[in-house]
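hey so u asked for the seq, here:
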Amino acid sequence: MSRPAGREPRRPTRWWRRRSLRTRLTVIAATAIAVSVFVGFQVASELMDWELRDTAENQLRADSRVLATNAQRAGLTRVQLPPYPGSGRLVRVILPDGATRTPSGQPALPPVSEQAERVAQGASADLMESNDSDEGYLVYTLRAGDGAVQVAQVADDSPINQFGFGMLLIGLLCVAGGALVGRTVARTGLAPIDRLTAAAVRVAHTRELDADIPDEGGGEIRRLIRSINDMLAALRDSRRAQRLLAEDAAHELKTPLTSLRLNVELLIRLDRRGTLDSALPAESRTRLLNDVGAQVAELSTLAAELTDLARGDVSDENTELLDLADVVVAAATRARSRVPDIEVALDVTSVWVSGRPAALQRAVLNLIDNAGKWSPADQPVQVRLRAEGTSAVLEVDDAGPGIDAADVPRVFDRFYRAAGARALPGSGLGLSIVQRVVDAHGGRVTVARSERSGALLRVDLPAAAPPDPFPRLAPGEDTAAR
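ran it, structure tokens below
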């Protein structure tokens, strides 16, 4: 049966996951050493057993040849068999009739096997065999005369056992030493991560982002520390930007709110006294209400621009392949609908870019609105769009007084308004939003003086290949609207 969904892992798995990285490295090091010692013991035991057995067999063959030579000289029945000395090799003579002779005092050997009888009968020259009894004899049978001689030795496992016991002690020492070394290596290797963790905990508790983590260690540790420092720097910049935005917003909201509050309080005070009509003639009341409406509109615009600027990204919309000419025409249409008195002259050609339509339209609209504030009533805002090399070039110029050289470096700063613009409506955020949108699209926005002595704002965006098939414009179809 399959394990039910959501069931917790088995206990060993849970135990392992709950251990620290230092403990895991220690366990892994000790386990690796234990496995290595075990494998080494097995290989060494096999080699040692093979070597001891080969030595014993060679010794039995040599002793058998000596006994066989003596038996052929003296005869199997008369060959001298010295008494058993109490230890060492065991011998036995197999006579042609199957009877056996052994030295006096020698322990009884296992019965002669069928294969050994065949050697005595001349079926084969010799035979090496091992007995599986409790004693564990290694017996070598060699053909001699009309019979055979046998030399046997008790299989002695004591060297292997002693070797195994020694390897066990060495293995335990190696495992303990490996665990200690693994613990030390883990502590040393993870020391930068411990300091990194402590720094992260300190930042989380104190909310202080000014202290960088010392760049130490190498390889992955150094890359991790640098990434954390980069993240802290980004957080510091974000916090600084938020603080500046809040301060600038409070400053910009103060003036319209104060004016709006004074106007509203004046209307309320006069209304309560019942002197609204006598104190404020119809013309003055209309002017005051218009001022209130303009101030509310200014606050609404400022709030919308602050919201857009504080979002931190250009837009949530996806990037798509679009014709920038369509975006420019749509922005000009919106500008004329918002300010009917504004006059916009379009000279645009089809240029394809990869971007976000709403964000680009907002940027173009801000450029047109900014130019419309400065253009005289009889001079249109000129908007030109063309392809230039690998870029889409958008130019918006007006016939106003232009931008002073001292104001050019700060023209794209948030809330910055030149001395001549402070009497005009606006928040000082429009061109800042333009720059942010253009930067997010990999472009560049610059300001210069136009041929009409006004301001010329130029936007360069990376052009993209048009979709295929692309409906080309016929000659004379370039959009030109006023």
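Residues 419-427, 474-482 have pLDDT under 50 and may be disordered. The first strand starts at residue 90 and ends at 94.
lmk if thats what u needed
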